[in-house]
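User: quick one, fold this
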Amino acid sequence: MPIRILIAGGGTGGHLMPALAIAAALREVRPDLEPVLVGARRGVEATLLPRRPFRFHLLSAEPLYRRAWWRNVHWAIAPWRLILECRRVLATERPALVVGTGGYAAAPMLLAAAFARVPIVLQEQNALPGLTTRWFARRARAVYLGFPEAERHLPVGRNTRVLCLGNPITPPHAAPTRAVARASLGIPPEARVVLVFGGSQGAHRLNAAVAQLADAGRLDELTVCWSTGPGQWDTYGRYAAPPRRLVRPFWDPMAEAYAAADLVVSRAGAMTTAELCAFGLPAVLVPLPSAAADHQTRNAEALREAGAAVHLPEAGLTPEGLLDAVQSILDHPETSARMRAQALARGRPDAARRIAESVAALVS
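Assistant:
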């Protein structure tokens, strides 16, 4: 009978994708381990998990609103329902270990595991640790960091191991080559390719800036691979004009788009920045200003200081400013090459496997 490992995390792609990467790596490292995913019914995982080769459970978890506090009224009854759901999951699966990757889908499962004396470990993606990681770090057997900068903000227990192994992503060696990716997408080999995306939900300000540039004909010398986000597809899908502008609601998997790109314009989520570094891609980062504790700005600043990215705050985002930032990299090959080198130096493409090996050692 396989040894089951629960991997709890979700709500957004930034918490789900590391869970999926760890699950895939666990299967490779130890075939006797069975990863079982735990997410939220209202999260992006409700759509993506049915298409992945793992068993899963979806909880009735809801986000905790920090600014619109009045929307948290559901939490008056939600904890009791969640406790029962999490207990059922633990009773059904009888896991040897619970891995938390953050988000509102992870916290209730980690709490249930702690009360049931099931060992827990955490994977923290951001330069500033999230609430879930800070809440449970003292109880965790291990905390795996994506950014070394996170450790100074982390209150850990006496027996907690803190390991900076990078963020778990699908490694670049699994991606197509640049030539194959471009041929598959119908992009000429000599094109200058910019990949634009705003995370799993899209980014309105970023989409609007790109649309204004397209309307003005300012993107005609570039090939743009553009992910609008599913909720904004109806507004921006009409800008598709292959092969110069390839527009999709959501790129899944992202590896083909990364392989084809010369430069990325994106938010600064932890998994995005980890993928950019692993692929060695220069970037213009526009952090989500409403992200919890402004953690995306911390991520963008970390990469800017490393020389791997340009940090363009959304408050100052204009179509012209965005185009200037893109051209300042693409028009100067030496700048692009230096940023690629700095990104690669920071990349941890084997993070998922190293985390999986550490997890496997805890249940041997």
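User: anything notable?
Assistant: Residues 69-73 have pLDDT under 50 and may be disordered.
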